[in-house]
Design goal:
- The structure holds 2 protein chains of 2 kinds.
- Chain A folds into 2 domains: about 260 residues, Alpha-Beta Barrel (TIM Barrel), CATH 3.20.20; about 80 residues, no CATH class.
- Chain A is about 40% helix and about 10% strand.
- Chain A is built from 18 helices and 10 strands.
- An 8-stranded parallel beta sheet of chain A has the order 3-4-5-6-7-8-9-10, covered by helices on one side. A two-stranded antiparallel sheet of chain A has the order 1-2.
- In chain A, helix 11 links the parallel strand 9 and strand 10.
- In chain A, helix 6 packs across helix 8 and helix 15 crosses helix 18.
- The longest helix of chain A has 16 residues.
- Chain A is globular, with a radius of gyration of 24 Å.
- Chain B folds into 2 domains: about 200 residues, Clam (outer membrane lipoprotein receptor (LolB), chain A); about 110 residues, Beta Barrel (Elongation Factor Tu (Ef-tu), domain 3), CATH 2.40.30.
- Helices cover about 20% and strands about 45% of the residues of chain B.
- In chain B, the strands form 3 sheets. Chain B has a 13-stranded antiparallel beta sheet, covered by helices on one side. In chain B, strands 17-18-22-21-20-19-23 form a 7-stranded mixed β-barrel. Chain B has a two-stranded antiparallel ribbon with strand order 12-13.
- The chains are: A alpha/beta, B alpha+beta.
- Chains A and B meet through helix 1, helix 3, helix 12 and helix 18 of A and helix 1, strand 7, strand 8, strand 11 and strand 14 of B.
């Protein structure tokens, strides 16, 4: 028997024994590729960018793991080419990092994981406590190291750097090889990006950047990028109100794809982290990778801007904060209401709101003439929205 | 190589191939075999045939599905029913606040498919003869059998786990009546044993272009005693209204009280308001559960003065603040706990022009 004939014979015999070969049956080698995946159906990341001067190359469309339904979605995203994954200590009620660890098990050395720890509020911030919190994150992530450890929700970098305990903890963690790079996420980019220009602490920054708010921080984004700091955009869907607006999906492009393409049209943005919850999100968002901001995408952005102009609170605007005589954290209250109503993250929104200091809540707004509304550049009905936010966040 | 040695190698390969195929989830099955395994996993035809109806709650909506493939979705704070969607025969109809419409296009296919899915306890049993086998689809390390059904121009993709044959994903693809892309995805959690059934207790659904929502099943019931005509009736329960010059009688549909005030959703619509001849600025007397309150009427949202002009303790009758055809009573900046404690869905309310 020749070599070829013998091989055919073995294959036929094998398939006969296990029941393969009947008409109308799936043959794994025929219907799927070697990896077991249909090659035509899965979109792939088209572009990878340098993440500042870290030496890391990241997919232009990355993974925001704040609202996951199951860990395997992360692995599917990896198979589609996403290699940058963003999570945080507190996401999914402390289960976010665990999901990321489970989902990326087996490909850990091929992906870049960012996690974030808030410094302040109810969390302990002494050196030993912070090191312990990062080590706990490592256990949940099933990893020996974190690629980028960020301070979560930083409002003022100078104040952070004055805290010797925190700086010392991050230095120690770097020295021990438990974290590779440091950075921060911020809702106050106008201040913190400026401060970042004078500091060596941030090697990567995560900030709000979308077509509704972002234009005014572009010079700062450019400056930090030129300094070699990696730039990651979040909240790129501008409030995620598309489900309530008209004309948000067309044959050419969906709103999320247009929003991703708008963000990535800025060459100073290394990557963006849309929240990915399901397989369909992976496919929809990855399909926007490497694509230019064309006429159809721009038209979609324009439709969103027209409809959401006085619905969306620009979180980084902060004009109302100084106008409020009672110190209400207007942008945070409205952001948590946005998580509740538009992001479908009701439970987390309730927890975030419960953690706020009473003075930051709109408890005395009912009797106020509404100074916030008078200074809002976007003419939002701030006062009634604050009262409504309190209602839903305490229901 | 000796004949014996060659036979040994062949046998080893055969055993290895057989073992590999089994351990990798038997990706080489026919449509019929996949269908049978799926139905068996849900308890088999015998078990499924014992289920005459199933109902469960997701958020504010209760779903009732019959073994015949009828489906009724009922929304509202019980006993109020503001919305009903009924799938029966070839029709999918909706009654929202007594406005009845036909649901058409891909949305109709979605409801019809969910009716069959629930009726078969999330198995393929009600789709027999309508499916074709597309192949295997990998999502990360997991592989799924991909089955396809075409229904009125909408492609419905079923993705089944290769290990336990349960449904993992359901994907609807088509075009909206406007010609836009329609794609709705359901990702089901692993099936769990509950009330003697094996079904998913949560799923994440999203329409492409939106964030999606997590559905969590509660209050699962099987074989409830339902009225014989339950799946024929489409009516809502929004109470009754009576309108005459300067006077309105009606019911509470919903209410929400907080330290900042009270909002009562009523069953009064624009037609009632017009019959009563109310005009913006009219002073009204509200009667609810024996208590009297004074209200000011505003016919449209644009006519409501800014909050600082209304002042502390304002009480208004206005269109629903967040849209909709109904009118709402609003108390601003008033501790309304006492009034709220007397309210319940369908409680009688009345207003008279002063």
């Amino acid at each position: 028997m020749s070599r070829i004939k013998r091989r055919n014979f073995i294959a036929t015999l094998a398939t006969g024994v296990v029941g393969l070969g009947a008409a109308g049956r799936i043959q794994a080698g025929k219907a799927v590729s070697e990896s077991g995946q249909k090659e035509s159906s899965a979109p792939k990341i088209k572009k990878y960018n340098s993440l500042g001067k870290t030496g890391l190359k990241v997919s232009d469309v990355s993974f925001g793991a704040i609202s996951l339904f199951e860990p395997n979605v992360l692995r599917y995203a990896y198979d589609c080419g996403i290699n940058y994954f963003d999570t945080a200590e507190g996401y999914l009620r402390m289960k976010g990092e665990t999901y990321v660890g489970q989902g990326l098990k087996g490909v850990r050395d091929k992906v870049i994981i960012t996690t974030k720890h808030p410094q302040g509020g109810p969390k302990k911030t002494d050196k030993a406590s912070l090191i312990k919190r990062v080590e706990d994150s490592l256990k949940r992530l099933q990893s020996d190291y974190i690629d980028i450890a960020m301070v979560h929700g930083l409002g003022d970098l100078e104040a952070l750097l004055k805290n010797e305990e925190i700086r010392s903890a991050y230095d120690q963690l770097k020295k021990d090889g438990k974290i590779r790079f440091t950075g921060f996420s911020t809702h106050n980019a106008k201040l913190t990006l400026k401060q970042a220009l004078e500091s060596d602490f941030p090697q990567v920054i995560l900030f709000i950047y979308n077509h509704m708010e972002g234009k005014e921080i572009e010079p700062l984004v450019k400056a930090v990028r030129e300094k070699g700091i990696g730039t990651v955009a979040m909240k790129i869907f501008a409030g995620g109100k598309q489900g309530k607006l008209k004309g948000m999906i067309s044959k050419e492009v969906s709103y999320p794809q247009a929003a991703i393409r708008w963000v990535l049209s800025n060459a100073d943005v290394d990557t963006c982290i849309p929240t990915i919850s399901s397989y369909s999100h992976v496919e929809e968002y990855v399909a926007a990778s490497g694509k230019p901001l064309d006429r159809a995408a721009l038209a979609m952005i324009s439709r969103y801007q027209q409809q959401a102009h006085n619905l969306y609170c620009r979180v980084s605007c902060r004009e109302c904060l100084s106008a409020c005589p009672n110190g209400v954290a207007v942008n945070d209250v409205l952001r948590y209401a946005m998580y509740f109503e538009d992001y479908g993250r009701q439970k987390e929104a309730l927890e975030y709101y419960a953690d706020m200091e009473p003075v930051q809540k709109p408890l005395s707004c009912a009797n106020c003439p509404g100074h916030c509304e008078k200074v809002c550049p976007y003419r939002l009905k701030v006062k009634s929205r604050l009262l409504h936010s309190h209602d839903i966040l305490t229901a | 190589m000796s004949k014996l040695a060659r036979h040994g190698i062949v046998l080893s390969i055969v055993v290895f191939a057989a073992f590999s195929a089994l351990s990798s989830g038997q990706p080489d099955l026919s449509l019929g075999e996949i269908f049978t395994r799926n139905v068996q996993a849900s308890g088999g035809r015998g078990r499924l045939s014992q289920v005459q109806n199933i109902s469960f709650r997701i958020g504010g909506t209760r779903s009732y599905a019959s073994a015949n493939g009828e489906l009724k979705l009922v929304s509202g704070k019980e006993p109020v029913v503001t919305d009903v969607i009924l799938v029966k025969g070839d029709k999918v109809r909706r009654n929202s606040f007594n406005a009845i419409t036909d649901i058409t296009g891909p949305q109709k296919v979605l409801y019809q498919t969910m009716a069959q899915l629930y009726a078969g306890l999330f198995s393929l049993s009600k789709f027999e003869g309508r499916l074709k086998l597309e192949g295997l689809k990998a999502y990360g390390p997991e592989r799924f059998y991909h089955l396809l059904m075409n229904s009125d121009g909408v492609e419905v993709g079923f993705f089944l786990r290769t290990d336990d044959f349960f449904l993992k994903r359901l994907v609807f693809k088509g075009l909206t009546p406007d010609g836009d892309k329609y794609e709705v995805n359901y990702d089901f959690a692993p099936f769990e044993e509950t009330e003697g059934l094996r079904i998913p207790l949560s799923w994440f659904s999203s329409q492409v272009g939106t964030r999606g929502t997590l559905a969590e099943v509660t209050e699962l019931k099987i074989n409830q005693t339902l009225p014989e005509d339950f799946f024929d009736r489409l009516e809502v329960n929004v109470g009754t209204t009576e309108a005459s010059a300067g006077e309105l009688k009606g019911n509470v549909l919903d209410f929400n009280s907080s330290p900042f005030g009270l909002t009562i959703t009523t069953n009064w619509t624009k037609a009632d308001i017009e019959k009563a001849g109310l005009r913006t600025g009219d002073r009204l007397l509200l009667l609810v559960e024996g208590a009297e309150q004074e209200l000011v009427f505003y016919a449209s949202e644009n006519e409501i003065p800014p909050r600082e002009e209304l002042g502390e303790g304002a009480r208004l009758l206005t269109p629903m603040p967040r849209g909709g055809d109904n009118y709402a009573i609003q108390f601003f900046g008033v501790d309304s706990a006492q009034t709220a404690s007397k309210l319940k869905p369908l409680a009688a309310i009345q207003i008279k022009k002063k």
